[in-house]
């Protein structure tokens, strides 16, 4: 069974640009979760999508947004990039009705 | 919100030694997972253990939900066990996992 995949592996942007990160869940999983791991701030919950709907959102500004497609893959968009958005962005997926989250390898975003 | 505290923050062991990592949480949860973060950043699932005891090879975990703590045991440690171990808790109606700050384990040959 293939795991959660994320693309790209690395992304370099400049301040003010937009970044798009992609995530494909494990086959059969309908939920996708996004987390940010920034230096000194630990792992923080960003967004939860299930069945195409946003179910919950962490304490992040509106310029962090995303969507989930009919095939359950997901995109995370970060607009008006700031230097402090530099972080490892981790995506996880889960099966409906269960709590276990399985993580992908992450996308490392660097904002210059 | 729920607070998660892991101890110790850092641990250095000789290969072959045993260790115990602790996770305390401040409120009732129905989701608790242990992860190992590899050097490339990926979180590897170790256990889903909101209560009870589980074992997987040299690793085992125990969660005492009524006392709000969980323990991860590593026996006969190997250099490949090095990395950061995270405990994360949550409730199923939020989808949100709250992570502790992690325990950084270094196993020396």
Protein model, in words:
The complex is a heterodimer of chains A (112) and B (109). Chain A is an all-beta fold and 112 residues long. Helices cover 0% and strands 54% of the residues of chain A. In chain A, the strands form two sheets. In chain A, strands 2, 4, 5, 6, 9, 10 and 11 form a seven-stranded mixed β-sheet that branches. Chain A has a four-stranded antiparallel β-sheet with strand order 1-3-8-7, with no helix packed on it. Chain A starts with a strand and ends with a strand. The mean pLDDT of chain A is 96. Chain B is an all-beta fold. Chain B is built from no helices and eleven strands. In chain B, the strands form two sheets. In chain B, strands 2, 4, 5, 9, 10 and 11 form a six-stranded mixed β-sheet that branches. Chain B is globular, with a radius of gyration of 13 Å. The model of chain B has no long low-confidence stretch (mean pLDDT 95). The A-B interface holds A 31, 33, 35, 37, 42-45, 48, 50, 55-56, 58, 88, 90, 92, 99-106, 108 and B 30-31, 33, 35, 40-45, 48, 50, 86, 88, 90, 92, 94-99, 101-102.
Major sheet of chain B: 6 strands, mixed
Strand content of chain B: over 45%
Annotation, overall tally of beta strands of chain A: 11
Helix content of chain A: under 10%
Could you describe the largest sheet of chain A, including whether it forms a barrel?
Answer: 7 strands, mixed
Helix content of chain B: under 10%
